[in-house]
Predict the 3D structure of the following.
Amino acid sequence: MSEPLLKLEGVHTHIGAYHILHGVDLVVPANQLTMLLGRNGAGKTTTLRTIMGLWRASAGRITLAVNQDKTKRVNTKRVLDITQFQTPEIARGDGGGVAYVPENMGIFSDLSVKENLLLAARGARTVDDMDTARLEWIFGFFPALKKFWLHPAGKLSGGQKQMLAVARAIVEPRQLLLIDEPSKGLAPAIVQNMITAFKELKAARTTILLVEQNFNFAKQLGDSVAVMDEGRVVHSGSMQALAEDEALQARLLGLSLGAHG
């Protein structure tokens, strides 16, 4: 297995009076796509938000292996304890360059598609400063974004908004992507475009932690998998092994591969 890029050790999270995460242990290998699965209310979204610093861990440790060589030609990683980092530190390079796509997408409705992507391209002041080749690569997956380039994001359909949210996260190379239910509510053709985009990101050795309810989506993409229940990780292993074990699926998720294609 690849060395871990991200590790959670005994992480607890309280939100007000509610104790949501109960000692989460999670390893996200570098250069792989890790699926985070579980029933509704298991703690998956809270885990992503805690990693991102949007909610503060009340106990435990979160570490990120940051490559100090920006060219990625030399492996000069050092491990950062990001447990108490603020969200902007985690998102910027000093926290490893982490992008987060929330379930509610978090786009700026009053801004155009172009302006949303420009805001996400941290090193660009104008569209001319953006990586044109990378933009065209994104448009290849999500042609609607090019078509509606100057339209307000709030006028897009639900599927187009989801495309924009993912595009913002990948408009610049990031060391780690945290993505919450990218296929939710999308038409099958758009889901397939999303799968193709994530496969290309994997080929480019991008590390991804992805929450998903669509098991067919998960089995096509996942290298490793962690399953949560009641605020804990109750199973971890290879995605292929889980996809081939219907009894384990039924026990952990209440589903079977046969029923979910």
Summary: Residues 138 and 252 are 35 Å apart (CA to CA). The first helix runs from residue 44 to 51. The domain at 4-97+174-253 is CATH 3.40.50.300 (Rossmann fold). The two ends are 28 Å apart (CA to CA).
